[in-house]
Amino acid sequence: MNIRKTLSTIAAGILLSLAAGQTVAADSIKIGSFLAVTGGASFLGDPELKTLQLYIGEINAGGGVNGKQIELVHYDTGGNPKKSVSFAKRLIQKDKVDLIIGGSTSGSTLAVMPLVDKAGMPFISLAGSVKIIKPVKRWTFKMPHTDAMAAAKIFGDMKRRGISKVALISGSGGFGKSGRTQSLALAPQYGIEIVSDESYGKKDTDMTAQLTKIRDTDAQAILNFGFGTGPAIVTKNVRQLGITLPLYQSHGVASKKYIDLAGDSAEGVRLPAAALLVAEMLPDTDPQKPVLLDYKRKFEAKFGPVSTFGGHAYDGLHIALEAIDRAGSTDKEKVRDQIEKTQGFIGTGGVYNMSPRDHLGLSLDAFKMLEIKNGDWTIVQ
After folding, report:
1. Cα 251 to the chain's mean position, in Å?
2. Cα 22 off chain centre by
3. Bridge partners for 170 per DSSP
4. Do 336 and 346 meet the contact criterion of CB atoms below 8 Å apart?
5. Who has the most CB within 10 Å: 2, 101, 113, 217?
6. What is the side-by-side strand order in the sheet with 29-35?
7. Which domains does the chain have, with CATH numbers?
């Protein structure tokens, strides 16, 4: 069964009204989730949870999967890795879920991976660190492009612009640290020298000291790896110090909230991101375009501007449910095997082709290099 094609035949408004009064059958598919809906990473977890609720409501109204309704069991971590471990234990041991989709941040995901591996629980992460899938862990999969892929996309763009000396500044969280490590490792492959290496904490509200040091180097561009408010502060501080170097951000800021927070300072910033942010700009021949436009229409009708983060939840949910459908049951081993066999799945992040050696299944081509112009996204040609 193609979940998305089934849904497209029913009006969204009718589906949602039906879902509101739907009672979940005892014999249901239980999807567990732990997301950072509040706290500093809420711009990740909030659209992720809304996406899960939106599509689970639609799918239930359309008859569920194999005649079974889907029950979402969710806990808000506030971005705290320790809470993530506690909630993951509860989902596995008390709630008896069939599968987990979650881990808004890399820190939360990495913290629970040993637990799901020991429990034999299929787990689809929504976080960015390459450490989540390298080396491959039997029970863990993930949806977003990795930080290593982001660094590669950025360095490729820099090389085309003749940039060879780069100042790196990164957040101190799991995503920032991993992005820093990958950037330092990949830079030589692109003929790029990291001439400055600075960092900031998640509670820092001013990075002018670090950026002043960067200003005094011979850097030709600045790369910031981080998420939350930190990258917006860096962006503002760069402009306040009169630094005119090209500024690159990672896919950790791929939402309109970053532009809103950074304001006019974001003008000219480049970053790699999934095509969801520029769906209307894609050619009609692009196989992703119908999927992106449909998701964007439904999400924005209820919640406002889309972000790539909500898109990751869309991809994870549909890959999980199609795997359950193919498995013909919620047997965890069978579902895990079917997730690993995902081929040609057209999602918001790209076209997924997984294998025993690749629990992501995206190529670098799935990334678009974007530039912010006049307060909006544009595609770098």
Report:
1. 8
2. 30
3. 199, 225
4. no
5. 101
6. 70-76, 29-35, 99-102, 123-125, 140-142
7. 3-146+282-363 (3.40.50.2300), 147-279+367-379 (3.40.50.2300)
